[in-house]
Amino acid sequence: MKIVCVVDSIADFNEKINAIQNHFGNNILYVVKATLEPIFKTFNKPISAVYYKNLTTIIHTLLLRSEKEDVLIYYTSLKIDEPLLNKFSAKIIDRSAVVSLMPRYNAFERINNSAYNVYVKSMFKVKDSMASPKLQFLPESCVNELLNSHIGNKLFELNPKLSKTVEIDNVEINKSAKVHAPMLKLSLISIIVALIITMFLIISLAFFSAKAGIIILFVCLYILDIVVAAIFQYKSYFDHRFLK
């Protein structure tokens, strides 16, 4: 099995790598975040690749150039412990299915994920699995298929017969397993636009009273502003999960 270790954090690095090696072996390819490269070199481990904002492309190229075999992808920003790794190891014994780590989402996150998946399905005709990209096992057959398309596609929903998930019990691990896209500048613009719409609504009501046509027009403008902001935020979230 080949391990692609994405070094996006150096917190407790040696402890995490030792745990991964104890469970999955020491055939590790280190893909290091550019800003962490100087610090990573102090660990005296070989660097297979350095990434900036093109992580998935780097992993795809790295796997194309190496021998085809089962792949485990692990991000060092994910906190891990023995119970989690034991559960994960048990799921991949026969190495016949994709095994993913599935975070627990609260009610608000589930509602937001549903709306996000409307965007994803409208764009790609398939839903995001919402699994964490930070720990995932890919059998060789799946790796070969993904390399013929794009390795980022590993996060799309798969046939239940070809995939398994591991639930997270630990709160801190669950938090670290999730992807958090930064708030876009467009969100601020959206708020400004909403304030401008509100200003014109107040002026319109002052001069033309509360006519149904005016109310409907401004409601449509509010909805359009919210939808446009949501689309761009969902695109940013998708890019961070699948590409960056």
What key attributes describe this structure?
244 residues; 7 strands; alpha/beta; 51% helix; elongated; seven-stranded mixed β-sheet; single chain; 9 helices
The major beta sheet can be summarized as: 7 strands, mixed
Shape: elongated
The strand order across the widest sheet is: 3-2-1-4-6-5-7
Order of helices and strands: EHEHEHEHEHEHEHHH
Content-based structural category: alpha/beta
Q: In terms of per-residue confidence, which ranges show pLDDT below 50 for 5 or more consecutive residues? A: none
Describe the structure.
This protein has 244 residues and is of the alpha/beta class. The chain contains nine helices and seven strands. It has a seven-stranded mixed β-sheet with strand order 3-2-1-4-6-5-7, with helices on both faces. The mean pLDDT is 92.
